[in-house]
């Protein structure tokens, strides 16, 4: 599919737009000629950072707003062609320590967003960033979209509910929604300063700082890795194809890698390190 002209002059809002994936998506959309509005609550440690959009800071509109505020959402989604819904609490640890905040952001706020779309912009196209965490421990490999859902923490349960609300609003109200289940995204603008948003950032930061990397077990646990540019491409393609709406898709890497080999590769790239 030719994406280069598809998003030109389209009006697009990105929730979580100053975060890791949102900022990379924004940079790509600006290059494609889109009219981009970024929404971010700038909650400490959630990943929002103005530095992430430094290359396009004068080419986008920024709204510091929380998706838990329904009245601001009504204003923000009016007259928009697309909503890339990337706002969320993604820390599994935080979700267990503070389950109600996770519920507010990953489930309740998703209903606010969808209700605003239904009432004030029913033709908007909504691309939702879900997570492969919904599957829990795989019962078979490769994990496909028919695999049973068995989340293992509060974050997984609330994300599952948020995703299902997107599907429900498509089925009942004909809202154009599609969900992509992301896994282990890495790349520029990734949050590295703490260990609550995935193991990749922890490994990279530790190796750069000369720390010994801890691998639990034998290190043979297999993971899919998705480079952020590929995730952005998938989000754009899902939003551009009408037949995608109402569907859920897994994003997977081309070559799975186990944790031991990943750490060895990072050490090789860095030129030093130990585990």
Helix percentage: 25-40%
Note the overall shape.
globular
Work out the helix count. 8
The low-pLDDT segments are none
Quaternary structure type: single chain
Largest sheet: 7 strands, parallel
- Residues in β-strands, percent: 15-25%
Distance between the termini: 43 Å
Features:
11 strands, seven-stranded parallel sheet, single chain, alpha/beta, 8 helices, about 280 residues
What does the model show?
- The protein has 275 residues and is an alpha/beta fold.
- 37% of the residues lie in helices and 16% in strands.
- It has eight helices and eleven strands.
- It has helices at residues 20-31, 70-77, 92-97, 99-120, 154-173, 199-208, 228-240, 259-270, and strands at 11-15, 35-40, 61-64, 82-85, 125-131, 176-182, 185-186, 222-223, 226-227, 248-250, 257-258.
- It has a seven-stranded parallel beta sheet with strand order 3-2-1-4-5-6-10, sandwiched between helices. The chain has a two-stranded parallel ribbon with strand order 7-9.
- Helix 5 (154-173) links the parallel strand 5 and strand 6.
- The longest helix has 22 residues, at 99-120.
- The chain starts with 10 loop residues before the first strand and ends in a 5-residue tail after the last helix.
- The model has no long low-confidence stretch (mean pLDDT 94).
């Amino acid at each position: 599919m030719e994406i280069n002209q598809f998003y030109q002059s389209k009006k697009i809002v990105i929730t979580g737009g100053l975060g890791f994936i949102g900022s990379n998506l924004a940079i790509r959309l600006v290059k494609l000629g889109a009219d981009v509005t970024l929404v971010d609550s700038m909650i400490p440690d959630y990943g929002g950072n103005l530095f992430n959009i430094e290359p396009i800071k004068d080419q986008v509109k920024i709204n510091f707003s929380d998706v838990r505020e329904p009245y601001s959402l009504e204003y923000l989604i009016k007259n928009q062609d697309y909503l890339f819904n990337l706002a969320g609490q993604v820390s599994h640890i935080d979700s267990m320590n503070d389950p109600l905040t996770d519920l507010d952001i990953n489930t309740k706020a998703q209903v606010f967003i969808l209700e605003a779309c239904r009432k004030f912009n029913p033709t908007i196209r909504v691309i939702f960033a879900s997570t492969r965490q919904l599957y829990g421990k795989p019962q078979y490999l490769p994990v496909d979209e028919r695999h049973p859902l068995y989340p293992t923490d509060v974050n997984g349960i609330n994300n599952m509910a948020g995703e299902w609300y997107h599907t429900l609003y498509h089925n009942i109200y004909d809202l154009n929604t599609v969900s992509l289940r992301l896994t282990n995204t890495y790349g520029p603008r990734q949050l590295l300063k703490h260990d609550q948003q995935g193991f990749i950032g922890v490994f990279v930061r530790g190796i750069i700082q000369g720390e010994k990397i801890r691998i639990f077990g034998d290190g043979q646990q297999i993971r899919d890795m998705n480079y952020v540019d590929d995730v952005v491409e998938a989000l754009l393609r899902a939003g551009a194809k009408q037949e995608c709406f109402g569907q859920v898709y897994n994003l997977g890497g081309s070559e799975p890698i186990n944790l031991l080999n990943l750490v060895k590769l990072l050490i090789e790239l860095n030129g030093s390190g130990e585990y």
